[in-house]
């Protein structure tokens, strides 16, 4: 059981494009990801609403994925940003992580 | 489209003071943040309850914000801690991130 | 009020074993942790469902804890992985954080 360096890529954006983002990252070979619902916030387009009481309007999601290759992580970040974040509110960031069993989550 | 170094500041505390924390960080010039609901946990004050079934009592929230300046990130951490975490359960931490479009989320 | 280096250990797995994981990390001396519900995702065992409408079947949770000792953080990661992640879907990763008031959350 080995610890390996990897990148955790985090995408926080409008829930309306959740399935688009998932399709995009899967098309880039990403096998594993985690989605957080019940997320709200504020960016430069004003208040971004979460799922608490607003029935589907303006919900946010956080999508995160662990990627073993730094180059691929940056490519995913740029693709998401270029394809969606000109028209939708959102932020994309990455952080260094140490991970066990990464072979399950990114075939690279 | 450029990747920049920044700090992700994470505040996990009682939902009762969510709006106080938001007001505080906004007063320090923070333009963008994300809030996670449905969070529970345990610290040194015993079990911190989440929103699952306890109707508003003792809920927790996670508030995170990306800040381009390390100095400002530390200032936010200290202010939150000094003003609220003597009287409320909580933890504040920061991690290094690489971010796209940070200009949207922290004018510094 | 001092900033200290620590490890944030994140465990994302099936909600069915939430209490098992909590018992395990507490038995290793972990005093503080945060749990996120409403989490879903996909790994190498196919779609992992979250709490949105599937009433208890296949829900995921994210459990995170700040640990001051790197050695202990790795021990927690390995124990969780060895004891549970052969039979349950999940991922375990750690990242470097700077934390205030860590004395509240990990007595080491």
UniProtKB/TrEMBL annotation, chains A, B, C:
GO MF, one example: enzyme regulator activity
Gene3D superfamilies given in the database record: 3.30.70.120
Domain of life: Bacteria
Biological process according to GO: regulation of nitrogen utilization
Entry-linked InterPro entries: N-reg_PII (IPR002187), N-reg_PII-like_a/b (IPR011322), N-reg_PII/ATP_PRibTrfase_C (IPR015867)
Name of this chain's protein: Nitrogen regulatory protein P-II
Organism expressing this protein natively: Dethiobacter alkaliphilus AHT 1
Lineage per the UniProt record: Bacteria, Bacillati, Bacillota, Dethiobacteria, Dethiobacterales
């Amino acid at each position: 059981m080995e610890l390996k360096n990897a990148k955790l890529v985090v995408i926080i954006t409008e829930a309306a494009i959740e399935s688009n983002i998932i399709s995009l990252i899967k098309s880039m070979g990403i096998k594993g990801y985690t989605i957080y619902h019940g997320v709200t916030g504020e960016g430069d387009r004003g208040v971004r609403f979460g799922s608490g009481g607003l029935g589907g309007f303006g919900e946010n999601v956080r999508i995160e994925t662990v990627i073993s290759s730094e180059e691929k992580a940056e490519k995913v970040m740029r693709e998401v940003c270029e394809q969606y974040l000109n028209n939708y509110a959102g932020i994309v960031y990455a952080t260094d992580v140490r991970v066990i069993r990464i072979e399950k989550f990114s075939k690279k």
